[in-house]
Design brief:
By secondary structure, the chain is of the alpha/beta class. The chain has 13 helices and 8 strands. An 8-stranded mixed β-sheet has the order 3-2-1-4-5-6-7-8, sandwiched between helices. Helix 8 crosses helix 11, helix 8 packs across helix 12 and helix 9 packs antiparallel against helix 10. The longest helix is centred in the middle third of the chain and has 29 residues.
Length: 299
C-alpha cells in the first residue's frame, strides 16, 4: 500500500521507518531536506512540497499527518486539499483536540474526503515494539487503511474506536491516565529518596518492583533505566511540560461532572514544576507569619 507521511519528527520518522520495513510504500515530506533524505535512504520516496505529496500518490490517496495540534494541522490540510479528490483519506496521527477533529471531519466529508484520527502511543520505542493505535473513522475509511494500522501496531495493538473524533478522544483520556500514573511513581520515589532512616538505592528498588510487584509496569521499567543512568537524576531540572491532553481530559471531566482528582492534581503539579519560586507559597508563608508569628525564610 502506498501512503504519504508528513512530519518526520521523533514519531513520524520512526513510523515511516516501521512502515518501510513492513513493506509499505511511503512518500515522505518534512520541511528539512536533510531529514527527508534520511528516509529516502531507507527506501522512501521524497516529496519536496505538499503539492508534490499528493502528486506522488494514486487514488484513493492516503496522507498521514504528524504535525503539532491546532493551527499546523488546519494549515497542512488546507495545503493538501487542492491535490486531493473524492474518496481520499487524511489521517491525523497527532494529539489533536477531539472537538477540532470532529469539525475537520465534517468539513472534509462535505468535499468527499475522509478524515481518520489515530491516537498514537508508543513514543520512541514504537519503531521496535509497535504503536498502540486508537482509531476514529468511518467503517469504509478504517477498512481502507487497516493494512497500515497492522504494519504499525503490535498484535492486537490497534482498534476502531468509533466515528471521527473517537480516536483522539480515547487518546486524550489515555494521556490523562498517564499523567496520574507518572505522578504516583514520582511521589513514591521522592519519599524513598527523602528517607531519613535509610539510604535507599532507587535503581535496585525499581528493578525489584519490575519482577512480580503489583506496581510493575513499562513506566517503572523506564524508571529503572533512568536511575541506572543517573541515580540522583542530577542532570535534570524538575520542569515538566504538558502537550495539552491532560488539560483537555480535566476539562472533559468537568463538562461531564465526572470527579477526576488524581488526573487534575497531576496536571496542577506539572504547572507548579515550572515555577522557580511559587508566589502562592510566599503568600501562605506571609499569612502564617502574620497570624501566628511562624518563622519565614528570606529570599
Amino acid at each position: 500500500m502506498r501512503l504519504a507521511m508528513i512530519g518526520l519528527g521523533r514519531m513520524g520518522g520512526n513510523m515511516s521507518e516501521r512502515l518501510i520495513k513492513g513493506g509499505q510504500e511511503v512518500v515522505v515530506f518534512d520541511r528539512k531536506p536533510d531529514t527527508r533524505q534520511r528516509y529516502v535512504s531507507l527506501g522512501a520516496t521524497e516529496a519536496t512540497t505538499l503539492s508534490d505529496v499528493t502528486a506522488k500518490l494514486h487514488s484513493p490517496r492516503i496522507v498521514w499527518i504528524m504535525v503539532p495540534a491546532g493551527k499546523p494541522v488546519d494549515e497542512t490540510i488546507a495545503s493538501l486539499l487542492p491535490g486531493l479528490s473524492k474518496g481520499d483519506v487524511i489521517i491525523d496521527g497527532g494529539n489533536s483536540n477531539f472537538h477540532d477533529t470532529i469539525r475537520r471531519a465534517v468539513e472534509l466529508q462535505a468535499k468527499g474526503i475522509h478524515l481518520v484520527d489515530s491516537g498514537t502511543s508508543g513514543g520512541i520505542w514504537g519503531l521496535a515494539n509497535g504503536y498502540c493505535l486508537m482509531i476514529g473513522a468511518s467503517p469504509e475509511a478504517f477498512k481502507l487503511c487497516e493494512p497500515i494500522f497492522k504494519t504499525l501496531a503490535p498484535t492486537d495493538g490497534y482498534g476502531h474506536m468509533g466515528p471521527p473524533g473517537a480516536g483522539h478522544y480515547v487518546k486524550m483520556v489515555h494521556n490523562g491516565i498517564e499523567y496520574g500514573m507518572l505522578q504516583a511513581y514520582a511521589e513514591g520515589y521522592e519519599i524513598l529518596h527523602a528517607s531519613r532512616d535509610f539510604k535507599l538505592d532507587l535503581h535496585k528498588i525499581a528493578a525489584v518492583w519490575n519482577h512480580g510487584s503489583v506496581v510493575r509496569s513499562w513506566l517503572n521499567e523506564l524508571a529503572e533505566r533512568a536511575f541506572e543512568k543517573d541515580i540522583e537524576l542530577s542532570a535534570l531540572r524538575g520542569y515538566v511540560e504538558d502537550s495539552g491532553e491532560g488539560r483537555w481530559t480535566v476539562q472533559e471531566a468537568i463538562d461531564l461532572d465526572v470527579p477526576a482528582p488524581v488526573i487534575t492534581l497531576s496536571l496542577l503539579t506539572r504547572l507548579r514544576s515550572r515555577q522557580t519560586d511559587s508566589f502562592s507559597a510566599k503568600v501562605i508563608a506571609a499569612l502564617r507569619n502574620e497570624f501566628g508569628g511562624h518563622a519565614v525564610k528570606k529570599s
